[in-house]
Structure prediction request, 610 residues.
Amino acid sequence: MLAYLLRRLIGLVAVLLAMAFLIFALQGIIPADPARAIAGVAAPVEVLEAVRDKLGLSDPVPVQYGRFLGRVVQGDLGTSIRTRQPVLADIQKYLPASLELGLAALLIGTALAGLFALVHRRFPGSAVVRLTLITAGSTPIFLTALLLVYFVWFRLGWLPGAGRLSHRGFSGPTGLNLIDGLLAVRPDIALDALQHLLLPALAVALPIAVAVGRSLGASLHEVMRRPYIRTMRGKGLSEGEALWRHGLRNAASAPLAMLGLQIGLMFGNLMVVERIFAWPGLGLYMVQSFASADLPAILGVSLAFGSIYIVANIGIEMAQSLADPRIGLSRSRAGAAD
Amino acid sequence: MTWRELLRRTGWVDGLAVVAVLLVTLLALAAPWLAPFDPQLRVAPAFLPPSASHWFGTDEIGRDMFSRVLLGVQGTWLPALAVIGVSMVVGSCIGLVSGYFGGWVDMVLQRATDLFLILPSVLVALAVTATLGPGLINTMLALMLFWWSWYARITRDEVRRLVARPHFEAARATGIHPARLILRHLLPGVMPALAVAATLDVVNVVLIMSLLSFLGLGQPAPAAELGAMTARSLDSLVAYWWLPVIPAAAIMLICLVANLAGDALRSSLRGS
Prediction:
């Protein structure tokens, strides 16, 4: 177990290094010019050079890469060109909002995936179910988000369409408003946070639910036809019991892998949804950094998201081996370091 | 399985989906001639709702939305096909070499493929495009940079399977040149699996490219790009819903058609 975790950790570092290197290697080919962005379009060459020197942009690329790696190890991700704050401080400031949204989306997505899989099992081979899932899988995330905003917020007025809370000035220890509201015994705040959270979380959750639900449905379909399940039915277990106690564990591996893949795709969706719902998280921060070619911020957030992705996937591999012990922890299947 | 068998096994609904994909491609190719108005010029008052003369209404400058969406379809579909095409060629070359030679060549190439496969694709595409600077070419480059790995893996696995078959053993025994062996006796066997993967994969590329475009990493302002058109008219949602919704719906239609065609191909292949 320890050896396994250690190997995964090496894999984590390898992927992060590869990501950082990829971006740095390309930076040398066509540099976007943040010095120009700071100094202004009309700035004379001397000012531009001074800004460049100050930012360390005039050094050779390998030097910049080495310096960057050295700093990252110490937790220093550089200074954002746009906000002029340390990137790490910016990340700490905006991460809780994204964490809240992402976790809520994963929760809703997993629940919906189960529902989709059950519907899939109830109506096997149904063209309507198949078409619905394919349509949902073809919908760009911003269309989902826009339709939710338009109908649920604007037309029906059921839920708020922007922001995290109706009133400013509340903050708690975790930064996750829903949990902080509960911790502070402020049901009004918790309810308000929940109402703001529902729509964006649903938008982020839908692609996850569709992909994982399809995978789970197909996987269950295959497992529930196996002889051992027939034996369970034969000894008098109800269909539900056979599924929950014996089928699910064997069917869990592929949908869990799909969940891991979807977490990787979720980061892009978080950016879009946070932009549409004015959700002040890391995704919105990233979108604003794109607009100003703020490379330190873009790199920092990418590495942060990349780390979350890999930690989540280690968790998923452990869940896979818990569900099905035959997937040996010693014999991992994907990974750079293996 | 040959292409003719594949075609015969495909039902008419699935055939329809394949025809629809071809139609989208034709539409994308002919967009500049089909567009009723110049997509970059003010041709009517701004914010006209959809009508007979302007099917999708007009935008905030008074440009014809139908023409712009048509151009947007071109700018989404053709680059996506190009990304898939290049990734398929590069990936299958690597996969063929890796699978054919085996041994340490296979080991090295597969470890490299692994590395690219486990990178979180959207995240890397975003970071790379942002680093290179916004633009269509950079978006495509950022995607191609690691998109080949998926095709390399598929090809390699298929090749390993084929190499073990007697017909390949017989072909090798005749002593023909390895290049001919690979092109005539391995590549055709790999093609169906690649074709299915590619048709389903186009959807992923279209969705990721429009996501990048929405986030402002696509072509700069005046260009008609579906994702960016939605992003720029977000504020118009309440007053002029068609401005952000129609371009996004066009992306959905493209993906739906491609998904159905891919699904059809896959299920007809699985029938074998």
Summary: Chain A touches chain B through 52 residues (CB under 8 Å).
